[in-house]
Design brief:
Rossmann fold, signal, EC 3.4.19.9, alpha/beta, secreted, binds 2-acetamido-2-deoxy-beta-D-glucopyranose, Pept_C26_g-glut_hydrolase, folate gamma-glutamyl hydrolase, single chain
């Protein structure tokens, strides 16, 4: 572990940090530099979830908070909503057409929900495609991060934590400082902000402890821990990336600083917090740019895009300013 002060000391010596981030001989360095054509019109799927626990369910049986959509749009992507209850054929067609998928936060069951069922379909397709040399991003935020731990291990290994509604800095692991795909190109000031200022929004009741992660063979061999946070004495995984796949999980919410305005100490809006959010989106969208999946026709692309739906303003009585609803 590198403590904030320790990282700060390293950060104080910028050239050292730069060399740590750019010269580390980790596999991802070789892997990330594989020659690829770039797709500058990336389209990301954002997975819907059941509205069951959402008081706005009268607007539709499933929803996507608009902040996830804007987050991706802020860095140059377009979004296709991944609705629930489609057929396997329809999901396969969507998979072949989009460049990555984001599993948002929320309150759906990791085991029994449609959110989890559909996430698993895309996760399995992503693993298979990446194994064949394709590149397909899978990103989990908050519940999505917890879901990734379930999809990879087949087990719910979470602990109940009191972690709803505050912002924290991140504790970077030595591995993250030495070399991660996610953080290695972040500017020094952004890393310093992440390590020392309360810029990461925490709105969760469950967490993946480092102990449960480390004791599980599937998890520890699949993901590299990039950051942890200690909640009530329990050290938990707050950021992870898969060693061999473009699969990433963040327990915190990089989309909230820019796009959610519920009055909460958990949503920092100061300039460096917003800059952190942008760099997270930029990384994610750049991963999607490495995928050359595309819709078979312009017409099918237009019909699938989220622009066909209008978000509902829910900010007066919800944690979300705007929400997209689907039948
Ligand atoms: C590990 O996971 C189990 C659920 O499988 C949970 O009950 C337990 O609290 C977790 N332990 C730690 C230390 O996180
Ligand atoms: C960082 O790690 C230290 C040492 O384990 C811990 O005391 C501290 O609470 C952690 N900081 C955060 C923000 O989680």
């Amino acid at each position: 572990m590198v403590s904030p002060m320790g990282l700060l000391a390293v950060l104080g010596c910028c050239s050292l940090l730069l060399s740590l981030f750019s010269c580390s001989p980790v596999a991802s360095f070789v892997w990330g530099s594989r020659l690829r054509a770039k797709n500058d019109r990336p389209i990301l799927g954002v997975l819907a979830q059941e509205s069951k626990y959402n008081k706005f369910q009268k607007f539709g049986s499933s929803y996507i908070a608009a902040s996830y959509v804007k987050f991706l749009e802020s860095a140059g992507a377009r979004v296709v909503p991944i609705r629930l209850k489609l057929s396997d054929e329809e999901y396969d067609k969507i998979f072949q057409s989009i460049n990555g998928i984001l599993y948002p936060g929320g309150g759906a069951s990791l085991v029994t929900s449609e959110y989890s069922r559909v996430a698993k379909i895309f996760y399995n397709k992503a693993i298979e495609a990446n194994d064949k040399g394709d590149y397909f991003l899978v990103w989990g935020t908050c519940l999505g991060h917890e879901l990734l731990s379930y999809l990879t291990s087949g087990k719910v290994l979470l602990s109940r934590t009191n972690t709803d509604g505050f912002a924290l800095p991140l504790n970077f692991t030595t591995e993250a400082v030495k070399g991660s795909r996610l953080f290695k190109n972040f500017p020094d000031d952004i890393l310093q902000t992440l390590a020392t200022k309360p810029v990461t929004s925490n709105f969760h009741h469950w967490s993946l402890s480092k102990q449960n992660f480390t004791e599980n063979k599937e998890l520890r061999s699949f993901y590299k821990i990039l950051t942890t946070n200690t909640y009530g004495g329990l050290e938990c995984i707050s950021t992870m990336e898969a060693y061999e796949y473009p699969i990433y999980g963040v327990q915190w919410h990089p989309e909230k600083s820019q796009f959610e305005w519920k009055d909460s100490p958990g949503i920092p809006h100061f300039p460096s917090a917003v800059r952190v959010a942008y760099y997270m989106a930029d990384f994610l969208v750049n991963e999607a740019r490495k995928s050359l999946h595309r819709f078979p026709s312009k017409d099918e692309e237009l019909k699938a895009l989220i622009y066909n739906y209008a978000p509902v303003f829910t900010g007066a009585s919800s944690v979300f300013q705007q929400i997209y609803f689907f039948d």
